[in-house]
Amino acid sequence: MFNPHARWDRKLPCADPDAAETVEVCARFLKGKVIPLYFTVSGSRIAVKRINYSWQERKGNVILRYFSVADAGDTYCLCLDPETMIWRLWNP
Questions:
Q1: 35: in domain
Q2: Residue 49 belongs to domain spanning
Q3: Cα–Cα distance between 75 and 32 in angstroms, integer?
């Protein structure tokens, strides 16, 4: 859903989301919401224990969906491009 009060002028958490690592993500799509459950990076499966925050950023005509997620001890940022359905990961 579009939020007219969102800050579109701030910097992205990753300067170039396209340069971030592509990962496989298992996610649930429920009533228009995306909920990442786990992702695989370097052959390791990381379970998402908590979604700290989620937000959207516009890149051209595409609205990218970002998720700050945590496992048992680390925090990660996931980005979903809904046009290509490609997930990207970087560790902030």
A1: yes
A2: 19-90
A3: 24
